[in-house]
Amino acid sequence: MNTGDVRWVGIGRVAVAVPEEWGTNELRCGTPVRDTVIVDVAMVELCHLPRPPDVDSLEFGQGSPPGDVVATEVSQVDGVQMHRGQTDSLLQPDNGVRVWSSTVSLPGEGLWIRAESSRGPEQVNEVLGRVSVLRDGIGIPPRNSSSDNERDEEQTGLYAQRLLDLGLEVTVERRVMEGPSAGHLLKVSPQPGTVVPEGTRVVLTVVGD
Hints:
Strand content: 35-45%
Helix content: 10-25%
Shape: globular
Number of strands: 18
Oligomer: single chain
Radius of gyration: 18 Å
């Protein structure tokens, strides 16, 4: 991992410092193709691609971590409890590249973070060692996942309220288009994962009537 210039990426008050040159959602078939942060991925191509060698990634998710993550270590990060699973590795049969991974969860924040690397376990440990609780700044959260019980308009309204609760301002811009129903959220700017000062204006572009 490059130890030069870094940028903060996070959700709410939890963030991780990653190298400035890392991308965001640099994926093909759901697989990182270069060093990247993964947050708020709306669609994943239905295809298979093994991870290339020498690629690190950091993924943010909400709720319980996926899979059977068993906490082997419990610690405190600035007063917030963090559970970490063991670092495992998998040899990809497609290209013979080994991938190491580990996941931490912060139950009090409703958040999990997974680091993966095809360089080695040291990179995984280094990335997860940079998890911090922000004193100044807020990570723009991902959009709400869809629900059969809530219309797009309701989903967008709940998301806007969450932004307001975090201390951000919200502007809604409507775009008339065919296809998605009214209120469908098309774009969030700045994009989710970006760490911004409290009071920053977040623009939601939604489908108009």
